[in-house]
Amino acid sequence: MEGPKPEEISHPPMDQLQGFEYCIDSNPSWGEAIALGFQHYILALGTAVMIPSILVPLMGGSDGDKVRVVQTLLFVGGINTLLQTLFGTRLPTVIGGSHAFIVPIMSIIHDSSLQQITDPHLENENMISYSNGIWPSRFFSPLGMVPVIALVGFGLFDRAFPVVGSCVEIGVPMLILFIAFSQYLKNFQTRQLPILERFALLITVTVIWAYAHLLTASGAYKHRPNKTQLHCRTDRANLISSAPWIKIPYPLQWGAPTFDAGHAFGMMAAVLVSLIESTGAYKAASRLASATPPPVHVLSRGIGWQGIGILMDGLFGTGTGSTVSVENVGLLGSTRVGSRRVIQISAGFMIFFSILGKFGALFASIPFPIFAAIYCVLFGLVASVGLSFLQFTNMNSMRNLFITGVALFLGLSVPEYFREYTVAALHGPSHTSAGWFNDFINTIFFSSPTVALLVAVFLDNTLEYKDSARDRGMPWWVRFRTFKGDSRNEEFYTLPFNLNRFFPPS
Question: What stretches pass through the bilayer (predicted)?
């Protein structure tokens, strides 16, 4: 029996994703843009609440301190988002708190020299970091970036469905409803607006949050274990009662930051990890905004502004550093709206509600299993964008199959070893007498995208690399490396206010 002809099963590679009604530089109506911006703000609350909830109690902080850190994280995140969308990569990316800083911060918290502090207020020690925006992009290829972008999405798998399972009666209905609205019912329209697809997150969060409140008010969790009540109840966060009505975060609000050379190395590792993860997220955001891949000049510009953002994190005392919010990148694909203006509006909401404490705390009190259910979809979507870069490579090549498989597997397996070892031994696998070295190594290898980058880029640039440029996808990739390599770059990435006169693209 004759098989299918090649032209019947081939799908030609495409620079930009299709089916987006609004791409990076096109905008929905103001009403729709404001609603979409508020939706991105709601999604950004998940990380903004989760990181302080982990760190502040370990620092000896109260619920009031936790609220202030959440407010500060949102305030600085809003400013950084505006700076990034205006002067950085100009991609529609929300800038939020980074999980990469948790490892060195935990090391600082458990430093015996700091255990003598008895001040009941939250202690703040931030390494003020700045990146100069230089990034070795010439070693990257589409093949090398596939595991990195994919694991930016897959890297937080342990904070998705396991958290959904901590309150299945809320998390599972949220997961099912979000998939149903955003995918199966996406063609339902009101006044020619696909309302269920476009606002699936807002609608489902509202419905499940109300359902969770009903369960709480009816006494469904009255005799359940404390851990279940903490995850399921809507009145256990203590954010609303602890939040001030109006509070403007300001620099050095926790006092003058201290500096320790040993801890600085751990923070430097966290900065490096956050930049690697952000690089993958920028690449994914460019495809989900229906734009061309950001040229080296634009990527370096964005990383430089991210370094300034981390500097602001240290000055304001957010408790962590900055990175691109991966879940918000995924939401671009779920809504099929990649508009830069929508993200800038969401930044306005972040700043506004971080100042009006009570109102911001109301939305921040949404049970976390609701966010975790959304993560299952949006992080997976970002991971699939990473895998889509394989279309520019030859996946009939054993070399490419080897590199992709090994980088993906080690990117998942090595950090899992570091996590399990840390839980079992109460310290990371690297536990020499040099604390700075331990922090650096443990931070680097806790990150799935970082491990994947190290493995993929090393193998891709050492294993038969001279004869495999076409198989690696370099002919497609090269023309996007320079700003003038593609005429569309000027439309997507030119600075506003005619600033390109002073910062000409290279």
Answer: 38-58, 139-157, 163-181, 193-212, 342-364, 370-389, 401-418, 440-459
**Element housing 457 (H / E):** helix 448-460
pLDDT at 334 over 60: yes
CA-atom Rg of the chain in angstroms: 23
* Residue 416 CB contacts under 8 Å (≥ 6 apart), including other chains: none
Helix (H, G, I), strand (E, B) or coil at 247: coil
Mean pLDDT over residues 309-328, rounded? 92
The first and second tokens of residue 461, run together, are: 């640039």
Helical pair 435-444 and 261-288, crossing angle rounded to 10 deg: 10
**Helices 435-444 and 102-109, interaxial angle, to 10°?**
150
2 burial type by CB count under 10 A (0-12 exposed, 13-18 middle, 19+ buried)? exposed
CB of 324 within 8 A of CB of 332?
no
Give dist(CA 402, CA 413) in Å, integer: 16
Enter the DSSP assignment of 182. Answer: I
Instruction: Report angle CA 327, 338, 14 to the nearest 5 degrees.
Output: 100
> What is the C-alpha to C-alpha distance for residues 119 and 244, in angstroms, rounded to an integer?
21
Per-residue pLDDT tens over the stretch 432-486: 888 778 888 888 999 999 999 999 999 999 998 778 889 998 888 888 888 888 8
Q: Which residues contact 41 (CB under 8 A, 6 or more apart)?
A: 346, 349, 350, 353, 363
Asked whether 455 and 411 are in contact (CB, 8 A), the reply is: yes
Let me know if 111 is exposed, middle or buried by CB neighbors in 10 A (0-12, 13-18, 19+): middle
Cβ pair 99, 331 in contact under 8 A: no
DSSP calls for 138-151? GG--HHHHHHHHHH
d(CA 297, CA 290): 19
Determine whether 40 is exposed, middle or buried from the number of CB atoms within 10 Å of its CB (0-12, 13-18, 19+).
buried
Mean of the per-residue pLDDT values for the chain? Answer: 86
Q: Which residues of 371-395 are buried (b: 16+ CB within 10 A; e: fewer)?
A: bbbbbbbbbebbbbbbebbbebbee
User: How many other CB atoms sit within 10 Å of the CB of residue 502?
Assistant: 8
Contacts of 410 (CB under 8 A, 6+ apart): 451, 452, 455
Q: Taking a C-beta distance cutoff of 8 angstroms, is the pair 328, 85 a contact?
A: no
Q: Position 415: which residue type? A: P
**3-class DSSP state of 243:** coil
Residue with token string 């001279």: 466
Task: Measure the CA–CA gap between 158 and 99, rounded to whole angstroms.
Answer: 13
Please report, as a single letter, which amino acid is at residue 23: C
Task: Give 95's DSSP letter.
Answer: E
DSSP conformation class of 295: P
